[in-house]
Every structure is written in structure tokens, then in C-alpha cells.
Design a protein that fits this description.
heterodimer; A: mainly alpha; 78% helix; 0% strand; B: mainly alpha; 81% helix
């Protein structure tokens, strides 16, 4: 068990410290800072720190997809799947370590969101100050982003366990999901303004894509969406079960 | 950049086109689009098909352009292709030309689709098929493929990683940066900032393509930035130790 824990820790450490991830994380912070610097006034309501997490979250969505895809893809790219899945650990144990890696990654991502909040508070020191950062509901932010990361990462793991390589498809999926997330935020705002609209998209509103965006957006509009978070966890568990099942059955060349 | 002979470039372009599955991939990517369009039409009769196609085409291009150069690095064929009889600049230019060929294929597909749907919708085709509209659309397709393509080649030459190239291009040209820049244009009072944003390729590329219209100023921005990206790519790839 301790060995598995160490394996998953090393996996996360490698992913976070890879050149691409660091560049993407820097890019996410740069994007967030650009929103603070370039966009001066915001329509209707006054600026708050929590509003910035949704802008940061858009970029973070791509970072999450890339990093969670790397959990399994790095092994495939380095051609060590044969060694990994036929070694001392059973395949289920390896998948279990991947899940622990995913949970560690989600905690890491939610810490990034917290750092972003602190950064915004410092950049707008004369308007907001540190007090506003301290008065944020940190528990809600951390739980929401951890759950969303976990759920999204489990979908990526499922996709990779089916596709196993093909980087072209991987790019397509990452871009597709982030574009969907971008357009969803408009839908979520529309539902928030006119609640009757949700009946028109009721089927779509139950898919994980919508729920992820809904969870992160509801942070900015008063409180976490507990119901959505539970569904997101449920989806995550289902995806992971499927991927463990597929990895267990498939032939590893 | 010496020795840029048109005939040699055409030769290497035909080699690029003869690549396995070149045409097949292009056709498949378009065939996938058709059921989605039909589904949209069934859901809502008033859907504007041409604008849906125009917003999806950049994504298709993005995912296929990004692997044109990086697949050489990933399949370890870069040694063969960049040390053969063709100079490295010629290879890069042929890649760019193959992007333009793809833009041409998609342009024809787009026009056919628009005509079919306008007949289906009961509108006339006279204002779609005159030479001015066709020329204007073709111009927008080509200029967009040129700028985006040379930017993608530049990033692929630097990173040699297909997925990463795609992500960088997506971030710098697509939804994320467009949301940021249009908010900044709308809210800022700083005139120099506004001028810089209006004259940056990152803002113009997709904005112009979605409306299928580049005015003179925008075309100049696109052409100049595209050429700068292309020259930078050639310099980097010539300096690169393969």
C-alpha cells in the first residue's frame, strides 16, 4: 500500500514538474493577470475576487485536461505500459494508484485556484485588500475545484484507456472539451438569469460537461452547488470503474 | 532562403499530398460534420448553417495543422525529411501550401453546403454564387489558413509537441483570448491599448474569419504577421540541430 502511494506521488510529481505543465500553469496565471490589468470595469456588479476564479478557471480547464491526461499517457508515450501492467502490482492496483494520483492532482489544482485568489487580492490591493481574500469561503472553493478536477480527470483516464495512444485524437478531445466549457458558461449564465430556460436543455443539463461548468460558475453566483458536486463525483466514480474494467480486460502490447 | 524554386516546391508539395491518408483524413473530418448539421436543423429550423460551419472549420484546421510538422518529430522522420534533397525552408513552405490546399478543399465544401441548404430553405442562390462573394470568401479562407498555418508551424518548430502546439494556438487565437480582448476593447479607456488590440493578429484572425471579411487594414496585419511567423520558422528550423 505504501509503495502504491509512493508510486502515485511520484507520478503526480513528474507531471507537475514537466516543462509543459509548468508553462501551462504560468500561462494560466498570466491570463488571469491580464484580465485584472486589461479589463478595467465590469458590467453591472462590482468586481470581487471570486469573479476572477471563473476567468482563471477557463484556462485552468485546459491545464486540468492536459495534466490528467498525462497521468496515463506518459506511461504510454514512454513505452513502459508493458513493464508497468505486468509487474509486481496487479492491473487493478496500478489503476488504483492512478486514481490516488488524480486525487492528489485535484488538491494541487484547488491550491492553484487559492493562489490565484491571493494574487488578485494583492494586485488590486487598494480596492480589495487581503481582508477580502481572508473572508472568502475557502472550503467551498477547494472542494468545488477538487471535485471538478477529479471528475474531468476520470473522463480523460477513461478515454485514454480506450484509445491508448493516438495523440491527434487526444488534442481533439482536449480542445473540444475546453471549447464546450467556454460555450457552456454562456448557457449557465442564461439559466441563472431566466430559470425556465433549463427545461429546454434538460437532457444536456444532466451531462457531465454542463455540470462541471455549472459547479464552477455557481461559486461566483452565491455558494457551491452541492447537488451538482455530488453528480460530478458520481460521474467520476463511474468513469473510473469503467476504465479500471477496460484496462483489466484489454490486451497490452 | 536561397534556392526557392517554384517547381521544386510544387514537387515536394505533391509528395506531401501523396502522403498516406492525406485526402482521406480531410474528407472524413467533413463527413462527420454533416450529421451534426442535420441534427441542428432538426432541433431548430432557423439555425444558420453557414455560420455553424464557419465556426467549426477553424477547430478542424487547428487539430489537423498541428500534426503536420510535429508528426515528423514524433515519428522520428524529421532526420530524413530535413536532410534530403530539399532545403529546410522548402519543406516548411510546402507544408504551408498544403494547408492552403486544405483551405481550398474546405472552401469548396463550404460553398456546396451553403448552396444546398439555401435551396433546402427555399432561398435563392443568386446572391451566393456571384463572383464577388465567392472571391471574397476564398480570400478570407486562404488568408486565414496562411496566418494560422505559419503560426502553428512556428510553434511546432519550437516545441515539437503536437498537443502542446494545439493548446498554445487555441489559447492565443480562439475563445479565451477573444473573450479577454473584446472585454478589454469594450471597457478600456486607453486609446493606445485599443489600437494595439485592433491591430494584433490574435484579435483579427478569428474575428475576420467568422464574418468572412477582412478589410484592407486587417489583411495587412494578417499578411505581415503571417510572413513574420514564416520567416521566423525558417530561421529556427535552419538553426535547429536535427
Amino acid at each position: 500500500m505504501l509503495k502504491l502511494l509512493k508510486l502515485s506521488y511520484l507520478n503526480v510529481k513528474n507531471i507537475v514538474r514537466s516543462k509543459e505543465s509548468i508553462l501551462l500553469i504560468i500561462g494560466a496565471f498570466a491570463y488571469s493577470i491580464m484580465w485584472v490589468v486589461l479589463v478595467q470595469i465590469r458590467s453591472m456588479k462590482s468586481f470581487q475576487i471570486i469573479d476572477h476564479t471563473s476567468e482563471f478557471g477557463r484556462f485552468l480547464f485546459i491545464v486540468i485536461l492536459y495534466m490528467s491526461a498525462s497521468i496515463l499517457r506518459n506511461d504510454i508515450r514512454a513505452n513502459i505500459t508493458k513493464t508497468l501492467f505486468t509487474g509486481v502490482f496487479t492491473r487493478i492496483e496500478i489503476m488504483f494508484s492512478k486514481i490516488i494520483s488524480l486525487i492528489m492532482l485535484s488538491v494541487f489544482v484547488s491550491i492553484l485556484v487559492e493562489i490565484n485568489c491571493l494574487l488578485v487580492a494583492i494586485l488590486r490591493y487598494n480596492k480589495m485588500g487581503i481582508n477580502e481574500f481572508l473572508s472568502l469561503n475557502h472550503l467551498q472553493i477547494i472542494i468545488t475545484y477538487s471535485v471538478v478536477t477529479f471528475s474531468m480527470g476520470s473522463l480523460m483516464i477513461l478515454i485514454i484507456s480506450i484509445a491508448f495512444s493516438e495523440s491527434k485524437n487526444m488534442l481533439f478531445i482536449i480542445l473540444f472539451l475546453s471549447a464546450i466549457n467556454f460555450f457552456n458558461s454562456a448557457l449557465v449564465v442564461k439559466v441563472f438569469r431566466e430559470p425556465l430556460f433549463i427545461e429546454k436543455i434538460s437532457i444536456y443539463a444532466k451531462t457531465p460537461f454542463y455540470i462541471w461548468t455549472d459547479c464552477t460558475t455557481s461559486l461566483t453566483s452565491g455558494g457551491a452547488n452541492i447537488y451538482g458536486l455530488l453528480i460530478a463525483i458520481f460521474y467520476g466514480v463511474v468513469f473510473l470503474t469503467f476504465s479500471a474494467f477496460i484496462i483489466n480486460k484489454r490486451e497490452i502490447k | 532562403m536561397e534556392g526557392l524554386d517554384l517547381k521544386r516546391i510544387l514537387n515536394v508539395l505533391t509528395l506531401e499530398m501523396k502522403r498516406k491518408n492525406f485526402i482521406k483524413n480531410k474528407v472524413i473530418s467533413l463527413v462527420i460534420l454533416i450529421p451534426i448539421l442535420l441534427l441542428l436543423l432538426i432541433m431548430d429550423k432557423s439555425t444558420d448553417i453557414s455560420s455553424v460551419v464557419i465556426t467549426t472549420i477553424p477547430y478542424i484546421w487547428l487539430t489537423s495543422f498541428c500534426f503536420s510538422l510535429t508528426q515528423e518529430f514524433e515519428n522520428k522522420t524529421d532526420k530524413i525529411i530535413f536532410t534530403g534533397i530539399f532545403s529546410r525552408s522548402e519543406i516548411i513552405i510546402s507544408k504551408l501550401l498544403s494547408f492552403c490546399m486544405m483551405a481550398l478543399v474546405h472552401f469548396i465544401f463550404y460553398e456546396i453546403l451553403v448552396v444546398i441548404f439555401s435551396i433546402y430553405g427555399g432561398q435563392g442562390t443568386s446572391n451566393l454564387l456571384n463572383i464577388k462573394t465567392l472571391g471574397n470568401n476564398l480570400y478570407a479562407f486562404l488568408i486565414y489558413a496562411f496566418t494560422i498555418g505559419s503560426f502553428i508551424l512556428l510553434v511546432s518548430a519550437c516545441t515539437t509537441n503536437g498537443i502542446f502546439t494545439g493548446i498554445i494556438t487555441y489559447v492565443l487565437y480562439f475563445d479565451l483570448v477573444l473573450a479577454l480582448l473584446s472585454q478589454a476593447l469594450w471597457s478600456s479607456k486607453n486609446e493606445t491599448l485599443k489600437c494595439v488590440i485592433r491591430n494584433s493578429p490574435f484579435y483579427n484572425a478569428n474575428m475576420g474569419f467568422y464574418h468572412l471579411k477582412y478589410n484592407f487594414n486587417q489583411s495587412m496585419v494578417m499578411l505581415i504577421s503571417g510572413s513574420i511567423f514564416l520567416i521566423a520558422t525558417c530561421i529556427i528550423i535552419n538553426k535547429k540541430n536535427i
